[in-house]
Amino acid sequence: MAGEVVNFADKLALFSGHWSPRVVDEMNDYQFKLVKIAGDFVWHAHPDTDETFIVLAGELHIEFRDRQIVVRTGEMVVVPRGTEHRPHADAECHVLLVEPRGVVNTGDADSALTAANDIWI
């Protein structure tokens, strides 16, 4: 419903799985997705879109082919379209993703970690 407040903590309490983004709202053609991450993800890229990671709690590591960055609570990073990357978290990390509707979490990679898309909570 338009103009509803989204409480991230309340929404995060509704699911427990890692690497399975859940949509909490939309703006134009963009979705806001909460995801819990832990351990290693897969190397992948999104050839058609940038991807924004906003860390709500914890510490997110993102490997690129030439370097690694650390994104901490209260920080964000935009991974440019087509950039191969691999997220990782040593301990559970809570992230808000901002990306166009329909973006698959594993991008161009075929993986067992590919999550169902457009799951709302």
From TrEMBL:
Pfam families documented for this protein: Cupin_2
InterPro entries (alphabetical): Cupin_2, PKS_Associated_Protein, RmlC-like_jellyroll, RmlC_Cupin_sf
Organism superkingdom: Bacteria
Domain Cupin type-2: 39-98
Signal peptide, first to last residue: none
CDD domains: cupin_YdbB-like
PANTHER family linked to this entry: 16.7 KDA PROTEIN IN WHIE LOCUS
Protein name as it appears in the record: Cupin domain-containing protein
Lineage, highest ranks first: Bacteria, Pseudomonadati, Pseudomonadota, Gammaproteobacteria, Lysobacterales
